[in-house]
Amino acid sequence: VQSFMRGWLCRRKWKTIVQDYICSPHAESMRKRNQIVFNMVEAESEYVHQLYILVNCFLRPLRMAASSKKPPISHDDVSSIFLNSETIMFLHEIFHQGLKARIANWPTLILADLFDILLPMLNIYQEFVRNHQYSLQVLANCKQNRDFDKLLKQYEANPACEGRMLETFLTYPMFQIPRYIITLHELLAHTPHEHVERKSLEFAKSKLEELSRVMHDEVSDTENIRKNLAIERTIVEGCDILLDTSQTFIRQGSLIQVPSVERGKLSKVRLGSLSLKKEGERQCFLFTKHFLICTRSSGGKLHLLKTGGVLSLIECTLIEETDAS
C-alpha cells in the first residue's frame, strides 16, 4: 500500500512538473526554435528542387546542344551563363541530406557542424554572384539568335518550370545567403546562451554576414562600372575619365543654361558657345569626381561641350547665393 501511494504521489508531482515546463517561456522558445528548423528544411528542399530544374532542364540540354553540328550556342556562352550552377546544386544536395538526417534524430537537433561544411564552399557563391549580371547579359545576347531563342522557349515550356523563365532560375541563388542569415538570426533568438551550439551558430552567422557584405560591394562596383561605360558609349567623342573604376555615378538630368546679364551687358558665356537670345538645355551627369555637361543633337546623340564639358569636382568649392535677386 505504501509503495502504491508513493508511486501515485510521485506521478502526480511529475505531472505537475511537466505541465509547468510545457507552459514555461523556455519550452515556448524551444518550440519556436524547432519550427524554424522545420521551415528551414522545407525551404532547403524547395531550393534544391529549383537548382535541379536549372541544371537538368537548361544547363545539361544546352551543353548537349552546344556539341551539335549546328550549335545554337557556344560552350563558352553556356559556361558564362551557368557558372558554378551544377556545383552549387551538388553542394546543397549534400547540405539537404544532412538536414534530413538531423531531423531523423529529433528532438536532438545539432546543426552547427552542417554549417561548418557549408562555409568553406561559399567562395563558389561569391563567383556566381559576381558573374550574375554578366550571365544575364550573355543570355540576352544569345536570345538574339532565333535558333537559340526557339530552343530556350521549348525548355521553358517544360511543365516542371511552371511558366518561369531561365532568368528567374538564375536569380534564385542570389538570395540564398541572405536567407541563411535571417534563419540563423531567428534561430539564435530562440537559442539559450548556455546552449552547446550557440557559439558555432554565431560564428556561422558572422561569416555569412561578412560574405554577404563582400558580395554586395562587388555587385555594386560591377554595376557602377557598367553604368559608367554605358554613359561613355552614349557620348560621341567618348570620355576617358569614365574609365576610372573609382569614379562613382550619382545622378543625371537636364539643366537649363540661361544667358548671364551684368550691368546691362551680356557677359561672356563660360560653358561653351550658346546663343544669347534664348535659353539652352544641357544634359548633365554628376559623378563623385567630375561633372559632365553635354548637348543633345537632333539625332539624339550626346556631345561634350568643347569648353567646360568636363568639370573636376576634386578641388572645387560650392557657393550658395543667398541673395534672391
UniProtKB/TrEMBL annotation:
Residues 32-218 form the DH domain. PROSITE patterns: DH_2, IQ. Pfam families: RhoGEF (PF00621). InterPro entries: DBL_dom_sf, DH_dom, FYVE_RhoGEF_PH, PH-like_dom_sf. One of its GO terms (molecular function) is guanyl-nucleotide exchange factor activity. PANTHER family: FACIOGENITAL DYSPLASIA PROTEIN, LD03170P. This is Ras-specific guanine nucleotide-releasing factor 2. It comes from Fulmarus glacialis (Northern fulmar).
